[in-house]
Amino acid sequence: MSFNGKQPTLVNQLQTDVPKEKVKAHLQVLGVFFHLLDTLAGTSKPGNVEATVDEFFQRSTYRLQVWLEQVIKIDGMEDFEKPLQDHELPPLDVALALHSYMLSPLRYFEDSELRFPQLKRMKEYPLASILNVLDPTGRGYDELKCLTAAKYWQNKTQLKFNAIDSMSKDDTRVIECPSCNTAASVPWNGDRGFASPGFEYDCSKCHLAVNHDLLCAGKFFKALTQAKDGPGFCLPNTAILVRGELDIQSRCASIVAEVWKCLQDEKGEIQPLKDLAELAATEGSSTVAFIANKLSRAESALRTESLPVLLRSFEHSYPFTQDVVIALHHQRPFIDTIYNQGWSASKADVPSDSDLNEAYMLYVDFLNLVLNIKRREPGWQDDLIWHTHQLMPQNYRAFIVDHLHVYLDHLPKGEDMNAFRRHYDNEKNPKSVAVWIESRSIVALTTKGTFLPDDKPAPESCQAGLAAPSFLVTEPATAIFASN
Length: 484
What we know:
By secondary structure, the chain is mostly helical. Among the domains are: 21-168 and 322-346, no CATH class; 217-314, no CATH class. It has 17 helices and six strands. It has helices spanning 7-17, 20-43, 49-71, 92-102, 105-114, 127-132, 147-157, 163-169, 212-229, 248-263, 273-282, 287-295, 307-311, 324-340, 353-371, 380-390, 393-404, and strands at 172-176, 183-187, 200-202, 209-211, 411-412, 437-438.
């Protein structure tokens, strides 16, 4: 591989910003995650491993939500400067979910600024906190070292701290009815359990038959109402501009106004969710697809090609902009690869300095190709440096924007198939902004639907997209890198 004259300087800068010690700590934690998932697979019945893993990832995502809402809440401005305390250590599966969540830097940044301000307490991923409580084998938490956190977690959440124990002993999760907000405990397992595509329960107050589709639609209407009525709110995936700045008051407000206009009736009101669900059913459609089709009507000022970007965070019912369950599935092969390459072993001399130097150079080569509007899918070595970089969000954002002049996102291939269009291909349309993605093949999850309007074909390629897409026909397309 040939490198230009500027690359050694950039490599040196990266090794300062992303020190080798951080990379090696990250590798150790990836090894712990491998053993966690390996232990989980060992508890599964033969032939049922993938279903067990999917349920585990759904539970882990829910437990991440619980951790943010009940364990590391912010009570005052002074708390933003307070690092994570011993009692706030995340359970190991929550640490795994948080890791995958942070590897979607745009969505994680938007959520930390607008939805989960407690995320800002973590200046970076808590690698050191996790390593400090590992048992001597490095395969998991030492029970005595994490006793304070375990007791606090269990007292606050009434859930088991140990992820494997939680799988077998915590039978239910809490759900709010998307129509009347009445809370209910619903089972994880069974044909109508939350982990099943056939999930359904009857609300005890409004008697709505709640399923995954209605939870997603309810999340959409909650976000839309908040964004319309409350200052500082926006629809997910709409606030971040190309350089990573936030624009809530003007850009986001215009998008919200147009979305509301598409859905309102003659009185300027939006029909109750229950009524919309009934209308969708009469057309043989899911509620979310029904909403997408209403937004894609011809007289709308919304760009139909950008609707999947606008709506992709409503393809799941968790409160995050990122679909953390999908992200966990996509990170699993990478965790396996790192372990099988021997890099996540606890040996001090693995990987060697020369191995890491090569990984840094590969990462620089990847970034320079992005800068020159060329593409190369990152390999596992440069992915390791890229991922470690993203685990320091403020550092990553500053470095990437300074070098590339755009806030480079990280999207696993397959996750956002509906969010990309052929005319976004930057080889044909040089005014689009590159978003580079990993190539990870996984089996499509039957619990995940699509917001793609019924008459819109899926794209042929998932190789490029918009870092700051234009959502309104009156909104100019974003120029490519500012220096070009």
